[in-house]
Amino acid sequence: MTQITLNIPDNELSFFMQLIEKFNYETVINEFSVTEEMKNLLDERRSTSKVGDFVPWDEAKKQLRFKSKK
Length: 70
What we know:
Blueprint (H helix, E strand, L loop, with lengths): L12 H8 L15 H13 L8 H7 L7
């Protein structure tokens, strides 16, 4: 099975949905839960973080390196 993720501009969503309805597609919703322990850890990290240390997501993505699958 192949999975495709698309980013559709808001102003093109209606057109895209009309087009995609002509095909057989499956909607997948990835849901996950966060434990209280995880919430507490994240709250602690937020409270001790300095705004100057934050990296914008676009910049962080550029810094990520993934191992290729062999």
